[in-house]
Prior knowledge:
The protein has one domain (about 1-55). The protein is elongated. It has helices spanning about 30-40, 45-55; strands at about 1-5, 10-15, 20-25. By secondary structure, the protein is of the alpha+beta class.
Amino acid sequence: xxxxxxxxxxxxxxxxxxxxxxxxxxxxxxxxxxxxxxxxxxxxxxxxxxxxxxxxx
Length: 57
């Protein structure tokens, strides 16, 4: 499972499992990436639930 984050300031991809890890980023600062990771942590259950629902058989 992973999540893509795209805005006018940059792009990033984070793996959600087995733990939240930055896969790649473009143009985001370290501070922005930390903030994004924090948001992912705060919404982890929602993100993984939506992923499972979207990609189920």
